[in-house]
Structures are given as structure tokens and as C-alpha cells.
Amino acid sequence: MLLGGSTRPWERFGTPAVGGVVALLAVLPLALGDLYFAHLVAQGSLLLLYVLSWDLFCWPTRQVNFGHTFFIAAAAYTSGLLDTRLGLDPWLAMALATVVAAFAAVLLGLMTLRLRGPYFAMVTMAFQLMLFRFLFLFSDLFGGGEGVIGIRPLVGRPLAAATVTSLFCLGGFVLCVLFRCSTPCLLLRASGADDSLARATGVHVWRYRTAAFGLSGALAGLGGALHAHTFRQVTSELGGDWSAALVVLLGVIGAPLGIAGVASITLAYFAVKQLLLPLGGYDAPVLAGLLLGWMIWRTRVRSSRQAGSAMAKGTAL
Amino acid sequence: MKPAIEVEEISFSFGGFRVIDGISLSGNDGETLGIIGPNGSGKSTFFDLLSGFRTAESGRIRLNGRDVTRMAPEVRASHGLGRTFQRTAAFYGLTVAEHLRIPRLARRMPASDRVAAAYQIVEELLGRTGIGERQHEPVESLAAGECRILDLARAITQAPCVILLDEPFAGIDGAQEKAVTTCIRQASTMACVILVEHRLEALLSLVGRVLVFHQGRVLATGDPSEVLNRGEVLRAYRGELRESPSS
């Protein structure tokens, strides 16, 4: 079955629908010839890629990775520096940066192999907080708070460059959907549900976990490198604490609704954020209010479902 | 013919306290062994040692002649060891069908008569207990007893040569007990089954040999009806036997 045996209508029909929207958004700016819109779509698509790549590892393993933006920033800076300092071809720089991010993810994956739940979350958070400050903020090589500027685009025309970025993100979306239907993902879900049981069944948990972490890091890195070449600069904001929290927040909120949920929530957040731009600094309380309302609604739906399930099983008090 | 499982003098301690003390055991294909003993006698720790969740401090464990003493649980599983857990263990979030696909996918098992036989046993078990009709339902929709049956089915779909069953009858009702008993009998035709169970009547209907654990040692072993009438075994169960006979 396409969605790993999913029988939920939202996932079965929502995923192709969201994929269609992402594809349409990717090509629409080119058709309209609007550069501002193209940049906006590229920005939204990149955010989508960050969250989907986070979800790729965190959803099946049921872990919360707070260090994800480190991979994004590591690849963005690597690609930017390879381009500006060494004059490497932007495409080659992007490929190498993706490998660097994947390598960093595999390293972090191996370091946290035995950690679960809050311990995993804490270590990844410490990893992000520590390395982000030491490498990107306090180091002259990475341009300190100002970052790296003057990075060359992947293709000459800005409109085409933004469209290329959006298409890459669409590719990332398709990859994440395919991964969700794959055997490794099913085995990771099993290990996420019960690690000991999975091992007793013959699942080589560490192999799948490390590989998925590497793939998640590579996709995040691809997003970071695309960011560097699309917006032609990398600032510390990309790997900062707020970005880290945002990726986790969107991933956690969307995860119960499947990959279509993650994508919809991310795109909805981005759209609302753009609509709230005229409010200036006041958009944060509005977004927080929306988040709170969403959480309360989800909790109510969930508890009423659980009560219904308990009644059906005859276990209700 | 090599025994399906051979355990030689294995020992294990928790912080200096010896919980398994030089236990040996040997089981052949088609044999069903029962392990009984009071709470805290080391039965589940013994299963953890056999399946690789704990590593023995001394001694050897062999599966079909292969030394697996230092191997990880997933590697032992690929060498033909299947187990269930004392707790209700299930892959929550997966459907019943996905749950049963995990062993085949994890081990990339090629089709064989042995695998086909294992699937036949599981199909019958699921059919008798009604779980088979709920293949597309999530595991969390099953009751605790049904989850235990699913765990047993999962262990058998591994087509193992040794199956360790930790209290397979806990929390299941009369009709389910019959189905589980039949299933274990069928499974024992293709593997060596080792059972830990507190429900003695259920255990005795299945096993040909019983081992009584007490304070990490084998207190008695042999024919179930004979062993259970021994004075030291009865005293151990009543909590009157404070020290093992050899100490």
C-alpha cells in the first residue's frame, strides 16, 4: 500500500493533495514571473524541507531532536564558504555541504544511539546550543553574527534560482513520502514503539537509526545549502535557537496527522506568518494564541477518541 | 545431532548479588521445557541472558552449536532465537498485520518449509482467537490478553529453533488459553520451547521436563509430576527454603 498500510483518509488523500499544492507553488512564480512571490515560495518550501527532514527521523523513532538546525546551518555555512573562499562551483559546494551535514548527523546519531526520550532531547539540544555558539557565532571563519555574504546562486536568473529551490523541496517531500512507505521506516517505527521487542525480533536498531539520522541530516543539509545559494547569504539566524524550536514545534504539531499534516501545518504557519507581517512584533502573541487553541482542540479530540475506544473495549470505568 | 540450545554453567550478578549461579541446560528440537520457581528466583533474568539482553559473566550459551554468549539480541534472533516478554510487549502504533510482518522484514527470511509451517501455526492461532479478523486495526485496539497472544504469534513468525516464552498464559481467558496451548504444542514440533509460567496446570499440560529455580540455581529437574512432589520444591514455593541445598 502506498502509505505503509495507512487506512486514514486524511493520509491517503491528504498526501497527494499537499504534494500537488507544493508542486503548483513551485512552478507558479515562474509562470507569473514574480520574483518576490518566487522568493516567498522558496522560503516556505525550505521551511517545509527542514520540518520534513526532522520528521523523517523523529516520527518513526518517536524521539525529539533539538539539534536539527545545526545540520541546516552546517551545510549552509559549508556551501557558502566553499563558494566564497575556495571558489568552488555552487552545485559542487552544495553537494559537499550535504555530505558534511549527513556526516554530522551520523556522528550525532552514533553518540546518541542508546539515548531515548528526554535524554535524547537534552543531548541534541546541548549539541545544538554548544556547537552553534562555538562554531557559528563566536568564530571569525563563519563571519560571527553577520555570517557569510556574496554567495553565488545555483543558476543565473534569480527567478529560476528560486524555482530550482522550490523544485528541490518538492523532491524532498516526495523522498519523505517514499521513506514513510519503506521497510526501514516500518522497522524504525517498530523500534520506536518498543526497542527491546524490536531487537528480540531481529531488528538491527542501531543500523536503521543511524542511517535514518544520516538521511535526515543530509536532507536538512540540502535545505541549508539551497538557502545559502538562493538568498546568497547565511546568517547565524538559520541555525539559531528560535529556528531549532520552530522546526520541533511544527514537526510535533503536525506529526499526528501524518506527513500531509506536517506539510499542511508548516505551510499554514508560513502563510499566517506572512499575513501577520503588518503587525510587526505583535505577530508572536497571535501565533502563540493560535498554537494554544490548536493544542486545546487536539487534546479534546484525542481524549474523546480515547474514551470512545475504551467504551468499545468495555474498559471504561 | 547438536542440541537446539546448550547452556553451560552461566552466572550473572546484580551489584555483587548473584542472581544466576552456574545454571546449565540443554534442549532439543521438539522438546518443551518448563521453568518454575518462586518470584525473584532468576527465571526472567535467565531468559534475558539467553536472549542477549544481559551478558553472562561466565559460562557459555550455544544455539545449534554456535556460541552466542557475547552476541547482541538482534544477532541471536537472526541465529534462530525467539522470545516473548513477561510484560505486555507490542509495537503500539502499528497495525496487527504490520506487527507480524516485522520478523520477516527484519531478518529478510527467504521462503522455506519452516517459515511456511510457522505462518500456518500463527494463522490458526489468530483464527481461533479472532485476532485474524482485525489485521488492519492498530495494536492498541487489542486487549492486554490479545496483545500477549500477538506477541506469541510474532515470536513464532520468526520461525526460530528456540522459543522462550515468559508467562504466555498471563492475563488471557479460558478460550484463549486453549488456543495458546494448541499453538505452543504445534510450535514445539519445529523448535525447542522453553516456558516460564506460574499457572502450573497450564505448564504441566505442555512440558516434558521441568526445572525448578531457587535463588539463581536449579533446585530440581526432571519429570514434572515427580519434581513437584519433592519436599524441597514444595518448601521453596512456601518460602520455607531460605538457602539453596548446595550452599
Describe the protein in words.
Chain A has helices spanning 9-32, 35-61, 68-84, 90-111, 117-137, 158-180, 183-193, 195-201, 205-231, 241-254, 258-275, 283-313; strands at 148-149, 233-234. Chain A has 317 residues and is mostly helical. In chain A, helix 1 (9-32) packs antiparallel against helix 6 (158-180), helix 2 (35-61) runs parallel beside helix 6 and helix 10 (241-254) packs across helix 11 (258-275). The radius of gyration of chain A is 20 Å and the shape is globular. Chain B is 36% helix and 24% strand. Chain B has helices at 43-51, 73-78, 96-107, 113-129, 144-157, 174-187, 200-204, 224-227, 231-238, and strands at residues 5-14, 17-27, 32-36, 58-63, 66-67, 81-83, 162-166, 192-196, 209-214, 217-222. In chain B, a hairpin with a 2-residue loop joins strand 1 (5-14) and strand 2. Chain B is globular. The model of chain B has no long low-confidence stretch (mean pLDDT 89). At the A-B interface, helix 7 and helix 8 of A face helix 2 and helix 3 of B.
Radius of gyration from the alpha-carbon trace of chain B, in angstroms? 18 Å
* DSSP summary, beta strand count of chain B: 10
Distance between the termini of chain A: 38 Å
Strand order of the largest sheet of chain B: 6-7-8-3-9-10
Largest β-sheet summary of chain B: 6 strands, mixed
Oligomer: heterodimer
The 3D shape of chain B can be described as globular
**Could you say which overall geometry of chain A the principal axes of the C-alpha atoms support?**
globular
Distance between the termini of chain B: 35 Å
| Overall residue-averaged pLDDT value of chain A | 88
**Overall average residue pLDDT of chain B:** 89
Strand content of chain B: 15-25%
- Roughly how much helix do the residues of chain B carry, as a percent range? 25-40%
Summing up helix and strand content along with how strands pair, one would put the structural category of chain A as: mainly alpha
Q: What is the alpha-carbon Rg of chain A in Å?
A: 20 Å
Low-confidence stretches of chain A: 1-6
Structural class of chain B: alpha/beta
